[in-house]
Amino acid sequence: FRKKRLRFGRSRIHEWGLFAMEPIAADEMVIEYVGQNIRQVVADMREKRYAQEGIGSSYLFRVDHDTIIDATKCGNLARFINHCCTPNCYAKVITIEAQKKIVIYSKQAIGVNEEITYDYKFPIEDTKIPCLCRTESCRGTLN
């Protein structure tokens, strides 16, 4: 797979976003979500530490029950992809040489300068995180 040409820039959804620099057809690999593989216990500790350090956003992506990819301090541009209730991409866990990876694929054709988005699919919790996607079918929250 060839990673698509992408750039990060200011987003109308939330601070920074990731944008296509070339047309992307439907069902194509866009980018792998890269970071450090950690266990849940480590992720919980890091999330607290990041909050104490004043890091506004942490980039923790669950792979499975045991593994989380932390792209907060050592990730790639994929960490800038914003949530959208009607996304143009989706995340998929694939296994390559016995290692699980998260890959972002396009759901539809994406034009040059269009923002790359996917549904974060956060679990439902009492404390709601507001959604900022502003699409017609916005659910209002990420969880």
From TrEMBL:
It comes from the Eukaryota. Residues 4-121 form the SET domain. This is SET1A methyltransferase. Residues 127-143 form the Post-SET domain. Keywords: Chromatin regulator, Methyltransferase, Nucleus, RNA-binding, S-adenosyl-L-methionine, Transferase. One of its GO terms (molecular function) is histone H3K4 methyltransferase activity. The gene is Setd1a. Its main location: nucleus. InterPro entries: Post-SET_dom, Set1-like, SET_dom, SET_dom_sf. One of its GO terms (biological process) is methylation.
